[in-house]
Every structure is written in structure tokens, then in C-alpha cells.
Amino acid sequence: MQWLALILLLPYLYILIRIYAGLVRIKSFKPQSTPDISVSVIVACRNEEKNITSLLSGIASQDYNPDKLELIIIDDNSTDSTFNIASDYGGIRNLKVIKNPGTGKKIAIKSGIGVGSGELVVTTDADCRPGKNWLKTIVSYYSENKPDMIIGPVALKGDRGFFQRFQELEFLSLQGVTAGTAAIGDPVMCNGANLAYTKEAYKNHSLDLHEDKVSGDDIFLLHNLKENKSSKIIWLESTDALVTTCTSETWSSFISQRARWISKAGSYSDSLTVLLAFVTFVTILMLTALLVAGIFYPVFLLVFLVAFGLKSIPDYLILRNTTSRYGRKKLMRWFIPSQFLYTYYILRVVSKAVYSGNRW
């Protein structure tokens, strides 16, 4: 009877194998030309005086026509020198630094797009680092495919140690799901750290971004676009389009960030996103229940090990594909210990989100 618990794994296995099938079809993009398209790079930031100069330097070094590029920094009520540092920067020809007229990233981005003039909007974060071909690659991809939204790759980099490697693997798994679902034509995630969309698409689909939630400026726009069946949303596979950011320094800050991310899950209306979140949580609960039951009844421990092994198969395939595409295959040596931590991590994040996830 206890083996019937494995039936609960079937939806998880089916969905993740579909995602993996999408990943193996992805091909890397190489620009054939550099179109002359006006671009507005939007960066909403708060208390980023330690990072803003590096980002400004990264934008200034872009291999893109400076007359067609504008950078708009929106300071979201910083209490440090972020606004002054950005305002005094002289290395970018078309730089606008404004104050957020309200509070929060969503209002900040809306304000930035409102003063921007670019046909294409590209968003990133103050703590991200793009390569010099970042914009050229995104704009070339846009020119060739004419999508409404382009989902770009993001990678974490951190110091040595298991905690840092776990963060990298966890984030790469999210990137794998992001790319794989986009490849099968049903994207469930995106990251505002590397996202592009037309100004027209934002204008038509940003009326309900759930301003009551502190995060979700990216994913709610994605879901709104998906509701329009004619919208074209695509993944950009290119190392030149990659942006990098740092891992969290402490377990507490890492959990708090992820809790903010999932605190908006109750407002999701996209069917695959809701299904994937539900199926993943049920799978984690099942594994936890089997492990606890195994302490008292050894037969449940055997069921747990079988369930754990089955769950790990699509997880491994997705991460092996994604780490290979990002040149991080050595991270797979941390796969098994990360799998054991993952169950606790998910439960901890969910509990944090329930109590305080929607607060900075």
C-alpha cells in the first residue's frame, strides 16, 4: 500500500521530462549583424552605492551605437549615495537619473519606461554585470525574430563552499526550467535582471502587475503577455547575452530573497506556472512524509529512497544540460548533497514566504 505514494511523482516526472525535451532543442544564437534600433536600458535600484558604478561602466563599454542607447536609472528611495553617484557619472552619452515618484520596483520601472524613447526596453539590476556584446546580441536577436519579449540568461557567481555551490545549482535549475518551458512555447518564468520587451508590449500588458506584491515586475508581465495568444515570447541562448550577479552572502538573505519571489505565487493565473508550483510542493511534502515515516517504519524508508531516486532523474538531466550550456559542469559534483538539502530549503522558503515574504 505504501508504494502507492509513488503515484504522486508521476505529474512531476512528466512535466520535468517535457522541460528537458525543450532544453535539448535549444540552439545558441550568433548575431549576423548589428541593427540600428533605439534601446532604453532600465535599471531600478535602491541603496546600491557599492554596485552602481560597476554597472554604469558595464553599460558604457557596450559595443553598441551610443546614439541609439539610453540608460535610465530610477532611484527607488535610496538612503545612501546611489542617486548622486549615478547622476555624476559622465561616461554615458544618454543617461537619465530620476527619482521614483512612488515606492517599489514596479512603479520605478513604469516611470523609467515613461521617460524612455527606445523601441526596445531592456531591464537589468544594479548588481548585475553584462559583457560588452550584451546589448548587441539582444538587439540582433530582436531584429531577426521580432518577439514581444526576450528572456535572457542570468548566472550566479560566488565564493568557495557548499552554500555558494548550492545557490548556483538552485539558480541554474530555475534557468533550466525558464529556458525549457520557453522552448516548448509555454514559458513560466523570466528574470528582470536580463529581460527585453517592446515598449508597445509593456504599454498593452502592464495594467495589472499586482503592485501590492514587492516582486513580480517581470513574471506578471510575462503572464499578461501569455494571455494574448498572439504574443511571441522567446528564450535567447547566448553566452554573449549572459549577465552575472553574485550569490547571497548569508543563508538568511538567500531565504528571504526566495521567499519574496514565491510570495506572489498566490496571484498567479498562468496554468502551467500554478501546476508546476503545486506539483513540486506536493512532491517535496511526499518525500518529507516518507522520510519521517521511515524513522518509525523501515519500509517507508525504502519507498523514500526509491522516490528520491526517481525525482532526481529529471532534476539531474535538466541540471546537466544547463551546467554544460553555462560552462559550469563541475558544479554537478555537488548535485547529490544539494538534492538532500533541497527538500528542507523548499519548506523553509515556503514557511518564510507565508509569514514575511512580501516585505523587503
Question: What's a quick, concise take on this entry?
Answer:
This protein has helices spanning 10-23, 52-60, 82-87, 105-115, 134-145, 162-183, 199-205, 219-227, 251-262, 271-296, 298-325, 335-356; strands at 39-45, 69-75, 95-99, 120-123, 129-130, 149-151, 154-157, 195-198, 233-235, 243-246. The chain is an alpha/beta fold. The protein has two domains: 2-21 and 271-355, no CATH class; 27-264, Spore Coat Polysaccharide Biosynthesis Protein SpsA, Chain A (Alpha-Beta Complex).
Explain how this protein is built.
With 360 residues, the chain is α/β, with parallel strands linked by helices. It has two domains: 2-21 and 271-355, no CATH class; 27-264, Spore Coat Polysaccharide Biosynthesis Protein SpsA, Chain A (Alpha-Beta Complex). The chain contains twelve helices and ten strands. The protein has helices spanning 10-23, 52-60, 82-87, 105-115, 134-145, 162-183, 199-205, 219-227, 251-262, 271-296, 298-325, 335-356, and strands spanning 39-45, 69-75, 95-99, 120-123, 129-130, 149-151, 154-157, 195-198, 233-235, 243-246. The strands form two sheets. The protein has a seven-stranded mixed β-sheet with strand order 3-2-1-4-8-6-9, with helices on both faces. Strands 5-10-7 form a three-stranded mixed β-sheet. Strand 2 (69-75), helix 3 and strand 3 form a beta-alpha-beta unit. Helix 10 (271-296) packs across helix 11. The model has no long low-confidence stretch (mean pLDDT 92).
